Amino acid sequence: MRRQFGAMPVGYCALHLLRYRVFLFLSVFCLLSSVLCPAAYADEQDDLKILRERIIAMQREMDKTSESRSEAADALRESERAISDSNRKLAELAERQRAADIKLGKLQAQEKKLNANLSGQQALLGKLLYQHYLGGKQEYLKLLLSNQNPNQVTRDLQYYQYIARNRAIWLSTLREDLTALNEVSNATREQHTELASLRTEQAAQKGILDKEQQTRQRMLGNISKQLHRQRREIGRLQRDESRLAQLVEKLTRMLVQPKSNSLFRNDHLPDNRFDGKPFSQLKGKLTLPVRGAVTNRFNTPRPDSTVRWKGLFLRTSSGQAVKAIAAGQVVFADWLRGFGNLLIIDHGKSYMSLYGNNETLYKQVGDVLHGGDIIATVGNSGGNEDFGLYFELRHKSKPLDPIKWMATK
Fold first, then answer.
1. Who contacts 7 (Cβ-Cβ below 8 Å, separation ≥6)?
2. 26-36: average pLDDT
3. CA–CA separation, 96 vs 48, rounded Å?
4. Where are the domains of the chain?
5. Which of 34, 90, 309, 385 has a CA positioned 20 to 30 A from the CA of residue 398?
6. More confident residue, 385 or 392
């Protein structure tokens, strides 16, 4: 029966056509991915750079337009910034060291396994070499010179060829294992070197941190009386709150400006949902960023002052982890007069959460967060008396009562 393409069954042709279309689709997809993905990544990096530059420019503008009189807490600015930076770098180094330790452990396990395999293979190789030395190629000669049935001789020779082929494959595997062991051994040595370098860098960074902490303690001793007096000044409290309000308002305006293909528009924030609901519907479902005693209530007057609290102060131990209340993106991470090391997260649709008086800010502008991520550690930066976290919630720059947004259980 003649089988021509035109006479092939319809189903066969359809299957062939489907395979061709799938192949064509995958080829185009891979091509587009290779072209578009690097471009998208480059756009995101450009957007991040633009956002950081705009926020730096905004901070400089605020510094120029703010009142020129100095506050006692300003003397702490550089040392508290440096302490935060040093702690963040130490945390990054610790994370790199953990990753290096895990990689080293895997390499060492792999090296141990290869060594065990090679030990067995080398023992077997020794036996084979000894047998080869004793017998040489006599087996083949004996078969050829014997008076056995030629068919049997042919089968035996074929059998020996199989053995020889398997030995060749086994020797090839042995060589590959030796090469792999050499590569793993080199990688292990490199990992040891990297770990030693990380430990050296960590020790140097710890020395920098110790110096900055000593500098801050000396400054606190020199300005303690002035700080105590200024904490009660109504004018200073009002200026601090006004500065924070201006900052949030400027950030809000900046983030709602239309910008095509921007990673930082509100609709391009990470998934800011909780149980399938947007942030605006999270009321009564959130958790406070730290566990601590609430020493003030929203909209209650501050001690000996007519200035009212716009958020909560959560008194707790120094160094406790501060967590993001929901997904979002960091839009401010710097020292601000009256609030020390301050971090602000944009949750989309003009909702923001503020975390002040921190010792360390682990995140930087542009970082994308998920709810529960550790973003800072508790401190008393900004000239605050007590260790704790100052926490605010705002919508369209207007303060909200955080307690009403927290889960009751």
1. none
2. 53
3. 23
4. 98-217, 262-405
5. 385
6. 392
